[in-house]
Amino acid sequence: MSAGSATSASGALLAPGARIRAEVDEEAVRLLAERLYGISVQELTELPGYDDRNYRLTEDPNVKNPLILRHSPHGYVLKIMNSMDSKNLAVVEAQNELMNFLSRRSVTCPVPVRNVFGQLHSLEMLGGQQHAVRLLEYVPGELLKDVPHSDALFYQLGEFVANLDNKLQNFTHSGLAGREHIWMLSQVPELEKFKYVIEDPDNLDLVEEVIEEFKYAVVPQLGELERGVIHGDINEQNVLVDRKPQPSNSEYRIAGIIDFGDVQESYYVFELAIAMTYLMLLTGQPRSAGVLLAGYTVTRRLPDHEYRLLKTLVSARLVQSLVLGAYTLKQDPANTYVTCSARAGGWQLLRRLRKSPPQPDGDDTDWRAVADEYLTRS
Q: Where does the Aminoglycoside phosphotransferase domain lie (predicted)?
């Protein structure tokens, strides 16, 4: 897969101006759940998302449903995939198989449910476009963004990411082989088409600088990076945590992972960089990424040539999130979820990574030094 390619197995990468999110109301969602899964919906809540629509729903306990053999005690998530990704059903099949693969290997994640046709997805016409529709068992737990921060939790997150990728080394699926998606880190050069949404000239300069750096520092190195299937979007809204058992009831631990919409064949160092990026956005502290790195490298090897790319990769993910967030908001002004990176101080973090002079008490973006210090202290 070429990092600069504009085509994919599903046709083309997202083009500026395209509207791909399903146009659907709650009544239509209720009817879908009943027709496809026999569910009489008692409660329905739309969950935040970028291009897909996700609805948490619970069954009416007074209505017997013989169609689902193993009822989920915590309810379900009905996922309506965007019209562009829905053109490549092999990707949907790969996502379903991947969730089942990880669930069988003791990774807590959603599990797909078969519909009335015995299938794990169906293609439905909604608002004049075809969308893939699936039902997943709802996985309970608090999100990483909603619990107290601690170095111990960030270290665990690093271990979790490394363990996840170690398991994914044994997963392959032909549906992912040709997948290209605008949110894949390898597609950063394609952001040239979307940068027009950045109105502040200083921010635009930063965007252009990072895109160019990615082209000359990362793209020529792609053949040297370890490659495989990755989750592709490990962030504070996709990581589940729970409380540790007594007597440590005030502490949390990493419990699971959700949202496999960005699963892809890519590079393991991209997975690490994405997780580090979103953790720094959550904490506002570059140092926290070094603690995550400590947990990762204790569990999984990170070669020197891959470590040297991390600052560029983190900067690129920030730019990707900021540019595509601004673009999506322009297309869908009601979708405030897409501005979470900007609201979390994404531009300030990007400047700190790119422009800040070394601090007298040490460089908190020297993540390997932070990791070594944390491991020594622990």
A: 48-297
